[in-house]
What does this fold into?
Amino acid sequence: MIPLFPADDPCPVCRKCCLDSFGEHAVHCKELPGFKYRHDLVRDVLYDVLKRAGISAKKEAPVNFLTDPLEGRSTLWPVDILVFGWEGGKHACVDLTGVSPLVGLRDHGFVTGQAITKAEAGKVAKHEKACIENQHVFIPFAFDTFGALASDAVRFLKRVQQVVSSNTAHVKGQNFVFSRVGFAIQKEVAAQLVTRLPAI
It folds into this structure.
């Protein structure tokens, strides 16, 4: 609740909306450089965590079944992170999505966890069936700009942390999994705010 922006000034990035003094628009503005940067930064940090834990994974891995159900096979795209042999010998498709819990706040009020729960359910509805049909596990990794993680993301990181714990006796080494992901989320939020600060 620290006023950062002059109220009603146009957003210098998207130029479609007016900034509010507390940064609500700045945090969930979908225009570059903030929105894509947020997703990619958290993805890159998560991939690095997996590598350091000794978990075999590939970033931006091509698969031939992830599509937009409304558009069909013309929209094939890679999975954010493919984790090899994650569950019962099956590879896991980890799909990241970041949302702002402030979206729709004026219309519906604030409910803790509502935004990430909705984002997680949307990802499951979109991709889980295709993954199962192709002998893969689907893991939606939903997070919000306050640093909250959806239930599937928490379960995934807890298992990664167990792998880390089995490889190190140091408590600090065991805690770095959640810490690094949380710091990445904070860093991208700061970047979105700074990008929209008025020039001095």
Observations:
- The two ends are 22 Å apart (CA to CA).
